[in-house]
Amino acid sequence: MSKTGIKHKGLRDLARNRYLYALAVPAIVFSIVFAYLPMLGVVLAFQDFNPLKGLFGSKWIGLDNFRFFFRGQDWLIITGNTVMYNLLFIVTGTILSLAFAIMLTELGKSVIVRVMQSVMILPNFISWPIIGLFSVAFFTADTGVVNRFLSAIGARDIAFYSDDKAWPFILVLLNIWKTAGFGAIVYMAAIVGIDKGLYEAARIDGASRFQSIFRITLPMLKSTIVMLFLLSLGNIFGGNLEMIYSLVGDNSFLFGTTDTIDTYVFRALRTAGSLGMTQAIALYQSLVGFVLVVAANKIAGKLDKDSALF
């Protein structure tokens, strides 16, 4: 029997580490109040919700709210755009963040490197609505900076706000500019934790900097890369509402390549005013995202047990 006199293993651990568990209480309470209790709102997806009758007094209508979204072909286009953008954001963001982290680490700790770090991180603190205002100055048809430059070199102007073909490139480029520098911090922290003896041994064996990067740095970062990828995968059905709506707004000319699930839900909530329909789409997002995370985690666990989240 343990010193505490408690036989049950879980209770014994709780008694032994009671102060550590006490530190976790605020986070647990916060999660329950703001993450788990709101999940009761899932029932709205199956109701013709009436605010006067409340959550449990509204009429149940089964799957009618889901039919609103899945009728026709729009849901395929919207879902495809959502997945496409998030995959592009994850892949390009990971590659650029890794590249920046390795570059800054290899350059050392000079004043120039510190200035570069500050410049790279700064865009993360600029809100998307502000970026949206600046984008107008760049992409306006007649007076935009981009079209003025194209005219100066004799190229044809691009009608950015009536032609949707250029926007996938614009959105990916802006996302990289805003997030890659901040994302590099995580990888820099992981690189700093790598045993320096490995690099010294490689240097003694005649390895170049590039060989050390590809043979030591990247393999040692594999678990971190996979973990961040799995965490990002949970939001792959999120539509980056703040970003896309700040840049595109309600411009119907651009819906073909910019309309995502979140922007569709936001527009439907403002026009139709049905909380049940919007909750049905949100439930669809959450379920598919959950399935993707579990499946990807299972695959990662089979390839490398240390890379799995659970």
From TrEMBL:
InterPro entries: MetI-like, MetI-like_sf, UgpAE/MalFG_permease. One of its GO terms (biological process) is transmembrane transport. Residues 79-296 form the ABC transmembrane type-1 domain. GO terms for cellular component: plasma membrane. It is a multi-pass membrane protein. The keyword Endoplasmic reticulum does not apply. Keywords: Cell membrane, Membrane, Transmembrane, Transmembrane helix, Transport. This is Sugar ABC transporter permease. Belongs to the binding-protein-dependent transport system permease family. The chain crosses the membrane at residues 20-46, 83-104, 125-146, 166-192, 213-237, 281-300. Its main location: membrane. It is found in: Cell membrane. CDD domains: TM_PBP2. It comes from the Bacteria.
